[in-house]
Input
Amino acid sequence: MKINLLISIFILISSLCAAQESIPEFSGCIKYQSATKYLKKSYFSSELESKEYITYYKKGCFRTDYYFDDIITKTIFVFADSSYSYHHHTCRDIIYAYPLMEYNENWEFIKSNNRPYILDNECSQIVIKDNSQIDTLSYSLNFPMRHPVADKFLSNRIYSAINAMVLDHIIEIKGVLRSSDSAKEIVEMELDDSIFFLPSNNIVYDPNPDSINYNNNFREIADGFMACGNYNSAIYFYN
Output
């Protein structure tokens, strides 16, 4: 009886794994609506700000285009085999490469029992927290990723834990801001590799914020650090 039970469990687990593997890895783009509420008045307004961006994904490659009045103002590239995120502002020739945030033991990963629905997709949810920040991510295995195993970078730890595209991301930094990024449209399609082309010339690695000419736009500097997960530097400029 015990042997038959074990065989049945093994067959069930194998079937579930095979079913998940049979879903092709997501390739396409997701349009997000982003809203940020700054909790502390400093160099900029504390009013709620909203913007849209589109993330393209294929086989470990991310490209995110940020828009203002239907014009791309900034593009961020992240590659599974790189330890940097690459930021290109449309009005500049230089690409700034920021190191990805490294994982440390202060980060706690908590599986949530919440099952929100986003664009008619039932989602799972994970909460990631440390001393000053709480991230809540909702994701659906209808849009799977075959991400590399967890390594020293926080982003890879997250994607190896969920194995799916994030459809909703809420960030709360105590006393500083609360932001949300929610998927508004999902388009599955084949993407040409050229969309992830990154010219190797004019890349500045590990830029010192003091050397970046942002015309003293502290929030733009902070947002750049936020985008690559360097939250400590972001908090410095948000303050």
About this structure: The longest strand covers residues 133-144.
